[in-house]
């Protein structure tokens, strides 16, 4: 029977960073949060219907998630206010920064809610606690601002430092969402690294059904293939939002009469001709391929652009 080995020397403990990571990973399995998540995510989906407002909150117009850069505003303002609270004669400047941070938190909250409503359940569990921490921090800074306006500078600074402590915990969870759970990162295959230059045989064009998406494999990656008459459109199959299978999605025509595919998981919509994002929550273009059919009837593909 294998002997258990203690990797820690006697008298030592796991590093604090490891304990933080373990506790955060435990949140991913906290199924007790699911009832609250179902209620809130249903409300978010009913309120934010597909359209230009929802797309703007996700960051579709700029091609990147809007929430992460917007969080820099309140975090930067409140951290600066904490520094000034340690410097004599900066009362008014600190008060202004606290107020500016609260104003900057509004768009950060709205974009965060939009993104959170289109995440996997494990991500939503961490995101819910992250949101609770940021809400608590905002309430503490609101109390700090009120106290400062009332001339109770000592209480205002105390509320501010308390809010900053909670803020750091909330941003830690936000980092876990972004870097460990890859919320907001593109999940599409990295075509430039996985597909050599030039044309590649994919399949027989005659075997492709007309108007019905299928999946075919090219080397290490799966491809979404759609034939419409004499035209064949090919994208990578893993949705750039959270890797949903596009070949299982719906085929629609948008307002410009372009053929699009709707991801079956979270509704991201891509133009099949070039992989452009039509509607979020995806913000990254879906990698697309040029196609041609040889005289022998073989469909060949190469990465677009």
From TrEMBL:
Pfam families: DUF2231, Rieske. This is Rieske (2Fe-2S) protein. Gene3D superfamilies: Rieske [2Fe-2S] iron-sulphur domain (2.102.10.10). PROSITE patterns: RIESKE (PS51296). The keyword Ribonucleoprotein does not apply. InterPro entries: DUF2231_TM, Rieske_2Fe-2S, Rieske_2Fe-2S_sf. The chain crosses the membrane at residues 96-114, 126-147, 159-179. Residues 200-300 form the Rieske domain. The keyword Ion transport does not apply. Keywords: 2Fe-2S, Iron, Iron-sulfur, Membrane, Metal-binding, Transmembrane, Transmembrane helix.
